[in-house]
Amino acid sequence: RLAQLNGLTTGQLRLGAVTTAKYLVPRLLGPFCRQYPQVEVQLNIANRSDVIRCLEDNRDDLYVFSQPPDHLDLECVALAENPLVVIAPAGHRLSGQRIRWEQLAQEPFLSREPGSGTRLAIEDHFTRHGWPYKPHMTIASNEAIKESVAAGLGIAILSRHTLIHTAVGNLVELDVEDFPIANQWYLVRWRRKALSPAAQAFSSFAEMQAPLAAPAPPQ
Ligand code: PGA
């Protein structure tokens, strides 16, 4: 009977997610869409500052952020851990040992663009530790950063979620003191906004699945 009711929920679900959450959200949408086949999903992906604009303009029903803006009246439900890790090309001279960030200070550092939540979390972490933040190159895509690191252009700090489908032997996660940077994914909505039945169904579904497992470090 429940399945029947689930099957009857119709309408649109508009989800806004920061770029890095595209590795997480499909893991929720897969089982959700099987359970609610009549719900039409629209998934919008952009960096954190653009998704905040969508939130302020009330364009989507629900959002996925790792750092929800704190100046708005929001309800945030934790979904999963989002550790930010240091990656280097496979075979990097410092792989396989515990190192300090200072040992990497001479490496060219590839960074996401201003407006990225990943970048913001890294900047906060560096400020807390009194480390200078001097990216060598700014690249506005997690995937392009991974390719650039694999091609030997430098090192980077990315969500471990971005590494799940990386070919073995391409990249390594370095074991650096004070890393990973601890972060969380949240499902976010306006506290006072009534949700459509489809959005309500997704919100309850996601809460029931939480916490989703965070990926293990690559081998
Ligand atoms: P980003 O967001 O894709 O904008 O870096 C990730 C996050 O908010 O942590």
From TrEMBL:
Task: Report the leader peptide range.
Answer: none
Q: Which UniProt keywords apply?
A: DNA-binding, Transcription, Transcription regulation
Which species is listed as the source?
Answer: Ectopseudomonas hydrolytica
Kindly provide the name given to this protein in its UniProt entry. Answer: LysR family transcriptional regulator
Family designation: Belongs to the LysR transcriptional regulatory family.
